Amino acid sequence: MGETEGLKTSVDATEVEPESSGIDTTIQWPQWPRAVSGEQRARLRKSPALGEILIAQNLLTPDRLQEAIEQQRQSRKRIGLILIDMGFASPDTILDALSAQLGVPPTRVNSYTITPEAIPCLSEKIARRYAAVPMLKTGSALVVATANPLDLKALDDLRFAAGCKIQTMVGLENEIQAALDKYYGNRFGLREEEESGTVVVDLPGPQLDLNDELAQKSATSIVDRIIARAVADRTSDVHLEPTKHALRVRFRIDGAFHEVANLLPALAPAVAARLKVLSCMDIAVHRVPQDGRFSATVNGRGLDIRASTYPTIWGEKTVLRLLDRTALQLSLSSLMTGKTADAFGGLIRRPEGMILVTGPTGSGKTSTLYAGITELAELGKNVTTIEDPVEYWLPGVNQGQTNLKAGFTFARGLRAILRQDPDVIMVGEIRDPETLETAVEAALTGHMVLSTMHTNNSVATLTRMLEMGIEPYVLTSAVTGVLAQRLVRRVCEKCKQPTPIPENLKPAFGGNLPKTVYRGTGCPDCRGIGYRGRTGIYELLTMDQQVRRLLYAKASEDEIQSAASDQGMATLREQALELVREGTTTLDEVIRVFQDLGSPQAGQAGRSKPRTRRASRTSARLERPV
Ligand SMILES: [Zn+2]
Q: In terms of CB atoms within 10 Å, which of 234, 329, 435, 486 comes out highest?
């Protein structure tokens, strides 16, 4: 028996005889469902669109339909729901029209039409996967409401999962989702085998009040709301922090923290459990940190979410990192402009050498490297990476991920890549001498190696490498350039106001005071933050004769710095102050990014905050008295 035959029998209406089941049903059947057959699918192809049906029945005007179609382009919701939302049609009108279009009886989906005993006939996982609500169990069939009654593959899977025949009715998507949350969601998704991997959130973002008591009734709805609100606020990381008295919710927006809600502390375990289920973590494990990921569709927009837990004294803290692929800039020209862009673009296109991108966490290093290697992959080069972890999947790039448990470290990954005939290698981060040595070797043997280091500026990166045991002549042959970078928040254009320059900060501008500097006062556009969006600043040091000579001579960082300035390299701090001068950012922001403005004579900004003991000794040695 062929596959189509099997599919056909699975939904063959002749096998279902509801009249003989003798069950009193609260569902009013206007007509008994016909079989979903090949002919019916053909019929659907020929059948008029929902809008046309409504117009033909004088239930909708063409103008209103047009208006709804415009709306649909933005929200990507089903046209029926949009017509209901806009008040152009009632739910019953839409359902009747859908029924006429699909040849399947309509049903409202709510507590009056659902027989609770039918719910266990489908597991939550299956019900959610196919957005199908079990409505009623008759003698030999399960009546299921779905928005896609003609999806044969779904029907076949539902039949298999329920172990009986499936009778479909067409329901409204929003009512189906609400019913799924109501009948399955209340149990806080605590069963591990159920639903993991993906979440669909369809909530209007900006009006979300996370402290809404109703929302706090279920962990599922609170998680949905947090994700929806986070996306609406352009959040990069969501922190869910259990404290003694509350579950604190904080968002990182453009690099800065904002507290958005304090939820009932009793919610914390259920919220953590829900997120662990979604990201395939072990929900029974509470005392060990875990990590995982899941994808979410928020109001039609897809994003990847990386989740991690950390056991604190008040419970498990969860951090969600939101990776929005649409926001990722995959070309260097969208990140940087002018001389720096040309020079950096030229360096990465060379056949060999080593380029390091440096800066603290959250300074945009990964974005820069990703944009760079995407361009190289487009040129047809073989690009292979070893990352910890892979943040975005890049087209045309062979991306690998470290696995410490299995002993798959950066150094080991790098040696493996070298056996894979690469042109370009990206190493997520150089932290240890072993990785550094292997990377340098690769750069000296005809490969372009791109990596990051955790140093404050470009010159410090070179001295750090010398400290890690690389000989100056090796370093100067391998490294072709170092790019230091920071992300600086842009002041909100809608609410920026001139503000006086504090007396103690005036020396930072070195005698050339800007006429006006600004600060954001906060408005609806920036959610009261005063900033909106970020811009990158870049300091590119290229290896030239002069820098080489100074490195051989074991010159101080300041000497190398002034040689680089002669090259025309503007320091990060100079560029940040230039942004203040242009009115792109604020003095407060520059202080936040660099911790300290200091005076122009203090040398490079940021050196006052070394990362490691090793670096700390160097800084102390190299720090010039001010
Ligand atoms: Zn504003």
A: 486
CB 356 within 8 A of CB 383: no
pLDDT confidence of 431, banded at 50, 70, 90?
very high
Q: In what order do the strands lie in the sheet with 141-146?
A: 132-137, 141-146, 165-170
Instruction: Provide CB contacts within 8 A for 525, sequence distance 6+.
Output: 492, 494, 495, 532
Contacts of 338 (CB under 8 A, 6+ apart): none
**Residue 34: what pLDDT?**
42
pLDDT tens, residue by residue, 411-428: 999 999 999 999 999 999
- Radius of gyration over alpha carbons of the chain, in Å? 30
Q: What digits encode the pLDDT tens for the residues 466-477?
A: 999 999 999 999
Instruction: Tell me the DSSP string of 140-167.
Output: SEEEEEES-TT-HHHHHHHHHHHTSEEE
- How many residues are present in the chain? 626
DSSP 214: T
Instruction: For residue 510, report the distance from its CA to the centre of ligand 1, in Å.
Output: 30
Q: What is each CA distance from 377 to 34, 129, 187, 317, in whole angstroms?
A: 53, 36, 47, 38
Residue 532 alpha carbon to ligand 1 centre in Å: 7
* Per-residue model confidence (pLDDT) at position 304: 85
CA of 490 from ligand 1 middle (Å) equals: 10
> 502: which 2 tokens?
């504090």
Q: pLDDT, tens digit, for every residue of 600-615?
A: 444 443 343 333 333 3
Query: For residue 520, how far is its CA from the centre of ligand 1 (angstroms)?
Result: 6
The DSSP 8-state label assigned to residue 426 in this structure reads: E
Distance 334 CA to ligand 1 centre (A): 24
Distance of CA 524 from the midpoint of ligand 1 (Å): 6
pTM over 0.70, yes/no = no
Residue 400 three-state SS: strand
Name residue, tokens 């202080």: 591
How many other C-beta atoms can be found within 10 angstroms of the C-beta atom of residue 230? 27
Lowest-confidence pick of 116-125, 353-362, 443-452: 116-125
Least confident of 18-27, 253-262, 386-395, 511-520: 18-27
CA distance 284 to 291: 14
Q: Who's near 99: CB < 8 A, 6+ residues apart?
A: 30, 105, 106, 170
